[in-house]
Automatic annotation (TrEMBL), chain A:
Annotated GO biological process: amino acid transport
Annotated localization: Cell membrane
Gene Ontology cellular component annotations, sorted alphabetically: ATP-binding cassette (ABC) transporter complex
Keyword Membrane: yes
Protein name stated in the entry: ABC transporter permease subunit
Provenance organism: Streptomyces fagopyri
From TrEMBL, chain B:
The keyword Ribonucleoprotein appears for this protein: no
Location(s) in or outside the cell: Cell membrane
Domain of life: Bacteria
Membrane topology: Multi-pass membrane protein
Source organism of this protein record: Streptomyces fagopyri
Protein name as annotated: ABC transporter permease subunit
Primary residence: membrane
Keywords: Amino-acid transport, Cell membrane, Membrane, Transmembrane, Transmembrane helix, Transport
Residue intervals passing through the bilayer: 12-38, 59-77, 89-107, 188-213
An example Gene Ontology molecular-function term: transmembrane transporter activity
BP GO annotations: amino acid transport
Amino acid sequence: MTSVLYDAQGPRAKRRNLLYSALFLVAFAAVLWWVFTSLDDKDQLAWEKWKPFVHGEAWSTYLWPGLKNTLKAAALSMVIALPLGAVFGIARLSDHVWIRVPAASVVEFFRAIPVLVLMIFAVAAYSSYTDISSDDRPFYAVVTGLVLYNSSVLAEIVRAGILSLPKGQSEAAMAVGLRKNQVMRFILLPQAVTAMLPAIVSQLVVIVKDTAIGGAVLTFPELLASVGPMSAYYGANTIASFTVVALVFIALNFGLTSFASWLEGRLRRGKKSTGATVPPAAVAGTEAAGAGGGVTV
Amino acid sequence: MFDFLQGYDLLGAFWVTVKLTVLSAVGSLIWGTMLAAMRVGPVPLMRGFGTAYVNTVRNIPLTVIILFTSLGLNQTLNVTLGSDNFDTINFRLAVVGLIAYTSAFVCEALRSGINTVPVGQAEAARAIGLNFTQVLTLIVLPQAFRSVVGPLTNVLIALTKNTTVAAAIGVAEAATLMKSMIENEAQLGAVSAVFAFGFICLTLPTGLLLGWVGKKVAVKR
């Protein structure tokens, strides 16, 4: 095992590593012990507080309806944001300055603004200018905010996907006599889509995480918002509720992330594509946290 | 035109946003560096811990973490972080939540920087007789730091925008003020424009400046 940082280990290094492992274990155990005693002090480990999650009653009453709303908002946002993002991404690659510059400014504008600010704006706009009922308003606002932000991020992904193709593709297409929009429609976009798929799936993780903002600030009844009524009903089991909700989010997003990397590996080896993929990290602002970022956050 | 701004502490709200950003940035740089060191180090146990931490925290929404600091840590477990003032406690809790979350992304950015250094560089350095410390400080880390500016900039910008999530636990920052201003003033367009402009002023120059620095210092391969 050689890496950039260290060579294969000899007996002395192995002994030293064992010592480090032992020290780390002791520190980790101390932290765990502190967590457990403080939870126990506040009686958060009592079986009554965790029972509803094991017996399934909490799932059907609180968690599943919340999760359904989370998934609904995320899926709808993705479905609307993807075509919008494709249009803006292609517009940014246009040969005409009067198309390229406005598209670029719109994309940069919405990428610079937090999702929450867009959501707050959307709630107010819907209540002033439309007659959407106040029950539905948070859902519409969350989807609007997510669409505005994520379509600009997806526009960057589309642009990176098209630029990642070998130059010879468009040159050959031009040489065969295809027009500019034919080159884009028949040659570049179909290949770029496969290159972009992993990054698009990763963006879904960002969207799922951002729906929770709507739950906390705009009373959108999604998965996180179920913590309040749940812990009230089951006798202040705040820690248990948060743990279960976090685990559901982790399972969902970890599944999506693993799917994205499996997809990337498969497309790399695939026969049909050029083998080019856009790693999510290559596009600034993907993987970013909701109101946020790519290694990125 | 902008007389509706009177009676509101706009600059104060954005100042809280800036403070949240700076404190969380410093904190997550420290904790993120430690995590990255664990993930690239030779000790399997620490590698496992670093990987588990990053994969867990990255997949939890920041909102869940920040709400947990308030409802879980503060109200259930009575963690006060050395203050008895309600506002100060919430501010500090938000910083703790932001650090815990952002560190995972800082760690990944640093790790990707270390991974861009070709193994041949380190092997060549060892071949001419440099010891471990010299390899690290003279050869590997300088190259890694230079390629990491770009990714870290993205993390910083994301963090700036993420501070708005602190509105969920009542920290008086920009998004909180925006919400109350929109409720009290019949000036939706103007209020939104002011706050959009404020955030653009925070994120765009940062991105442009650090992006330029990143391009300038990056190692051409």
